[in-house]
Design brief:
Layout (H helix, E strand, L loop, with lengths): L1 H11 L3 H14 L4 E7 L5 E6 L9 H4 L12 H5 L9 H7 L2 E7 L6 E6 L2 E8 L5 E7 L6 H5 L4 H18 L4 E6 L2 E6 L5 H12 L1 H5 L1 E8 L2 E8 L11 E5 L2 E2 L3 H12 L10 E7 L4 E2 L10 E2 L2 H18 L3
Parallel strand pairs: 1-7, 11-13
Antiparallel strand pairs: 1-2, 2-6, 3-4, 3-6, 4-5, 7-8, 9-10, 10-13, 11-12, 14-15
The protein binds adenosine-5'-diphosphate and magnesium ion.
Protein name: DNA mismatch repair protein MutL
Family: Belongs to the DNA mismatch repair MutL/HexB family.
Keywords: DNA damage, DNA repair, Endonuclease, Hydrolase, Nuclease
Length: 326
C-alpha cells in the first residue's frame, strides 16, 4: 500500500502548491469560514493549513489518512453533481506518504485530538490536542523520502509564488470565506469574508492590484440559464501579457480557449494594438451543461453548448465595452 500511495502521490502532489490546494479544498468542503495558510521556505520546510470547519471525529482521525477514506461519496449518483470539490479520497493518504504530517482536529463540543504520520507510517497513536472546532494539517519536509521528486522542486521563491497563485485563485472564488496567507513569518494577506460588492472589489484589488480595480468595469449579465459577473478592465488597462485573466466556471478556475476567444473578440473593437484584456470573471451555469471532470488538475471544462456560451460571453462584454469606446 505504501507504493500505491506514493504512485497516487505523484498525481496529486507535485509541489507544495498542490498540497495547499488539496488541503484548502478539504477545508472548504468542511464548511470553513476562515482558512489560514502558513508556509516556511516555499512550503518545502513546512506548510500549515488551519480551518474552522466541522472537524473530524476522534475515531475517524487515523482513517482520514488511509487511502480511499473519503467521507464524501455516499453513492454513485454523487459523482454526477460533484457537490463537493474533492471526491477522490486519496489526497491526505498521498500527502502523508511523502511527508511528515500531523493532523489535529476537533468537532463541536469536544476538545480535539491529533495523529501523526511519517511517510505513511503512523508514528503515534491518536492523542489529545485541545483546540477549538476545526482542523489543522501540518506538513513538514515534503518529499523527504522521495529525493527524485524533491529534486524537481524549484527555488523556494518560485514554490512560494506557486502557493500564492493557488491560494489567490481560491480566495477569488470564495468571497464567503476569510483567508490569511503567511510566509516565513510575514503576513501577506488578511482577507476578511466579503459580503458586499465593495468588499469583494477590495479583495480583488488586494489580490491582483488596485490599478486593475481602478480601471475595472463591473460586469453583470444574465441569459437563459447563464450568468456572468465580475470585472473586466477598460481597454486603457490592457496588458502586454495575458497575465491578468481569471475565469471561474461554477466557482472553479478555468483556462478555456473558447472562453478566451469570446472575450478577446469582444475586446478587439475597442482595443489598440496587440494588447491583452484583463479580467476577473465568473460564469455560472447549470452544472449539468458543463463537464468539469475532463482532467482533475488541468483547468479544463467542456461545455455542452459551446456556441451558446461563446455568444453569451461575447455579447455581454461587447455591449459593456462599447459604452467606454473612445
Ligand atoms: P477527499 O477530500 O477526496 O474525501 P481526502 O484525502 O482529501 O479525501 O480527505 C479524506 C477525508 O478526511 C475527507 O473525506 C474528510 O472526511 C476528512 N478531512 C480531510 N480534511 C478535512 C478538514 N479540513 N476538515 C474536516 N474533515 C477533513
Ligand atoms: Mg480532499
Amino acid at each position: 500500500p505504501r507504493l500505491a500511495n506514493q504512485i497516487a502521490a505523484g498525481e496529486v502532489v507535485e509541489r507544495p502548491a498542490s498540497v495547499a490546494k488539496e488541503l484548502i479544498e478539504n477545508a472548504l468542503d468542511a464548511g470553513a469560514t476562515r482558512i489560514r495558510v502558513e508556509a516556511e521556505r516555499g512550503g518545502i520546510a513546512s506548510l500549515v493549513i488551519s480551518d474552522d470547519g466541522h472537524g473530524i471525529e476522534q475515531q475517524q482521525l487515523a482513517l482520514a489518512l488511509a487511502r480511499h477514506a473519503t467521507s464524501k461519496i455516499q453513492d454513485l449518483d454523487d459523482l454526477e453533481g460533484v457537490a463537493t470539490l474533492g471526491f477522490r479520497g486519496e489526497a491526505l493518504a498521498s500527502i502523508a506518504s511523502v511527508s511528515r504530517l500531523t493532523l489535529t482536529s476537533a468537532v463541536e463540543g469536544e476538545t480535539g485530538f491529533c495523529v501523526s504520520a511519517e511517510g505513511r507510517d503512523m508514528v503515534a497513536d491518536v492523542r489529545p490536542a485541545p483546540r477549538n472546532r476545526g482542523t489543522t494539517l501540518e506538513i513538514r519536509d515534503l518529499f523527504f523520502n522521495t529525493p527524485a521528486r524533491r529534486k524537481f522542486l524549484k527555488t523556494e521563491k518560485t514554490e512560494q509564488n506557486h502557493i500564492q497563485t493557488a491560494l489567490s485563485r481560491q480566495a477569488m472564488s470564495r468571497f464567503d470565506v476569510g483567508f490569511e496567507w503567511v510566509h516565513d513569518g510575514k503576513v501577506h494577506w488578511q482577507l476578511p469574508q466579503a459580503a458586499t460588492e465593495a468588499a469583494r472589489a477590495a479583495r480583488i484589488a488586494k489580490l491582483v492590484g488596485q490599478p486593475f480595480m481602478d480601471a475595472a468595469l463591473s460586469v453583470e449579465a444574465e441569459a437563459i440559464g447563464l450568468r456572468l459577473h465580475g470585472w473586466v478592465a477598460a481597454p486603457t488597462f490592457s496588458r502586454s501579457q495575458p497575465d491578468l485573466q481569471y475565469l471561474f466556471v461554477n466557482g472553479r478556475v478555468v483556462r478555456d480557449r473558447l472562453v478566451g476567444h469570446a472575450i478577446r473578440q469582444a475586446y478587439r473593437d475597442v482595443m489598440y494594438g496587440q494588447r491583452h484584456p484583463a479580467y476577473v470573471l465568473y460564469l455560472e451555469l447549470d452544472p449539468a451543461s458543463v463537464d468539469v471532470n475532463v482532467h482533475p488538475t488541468k483547468h479544463e471544462v467542456r461545455f455542452r453548448d459551446q456556441r451558446l456560451v461563446h455568444d453569451f460571453l461575447f455579447k455581454s462584454l461587447h455591449r459593456l465595452l462599447a459604452q467606454v469606446r473612445t
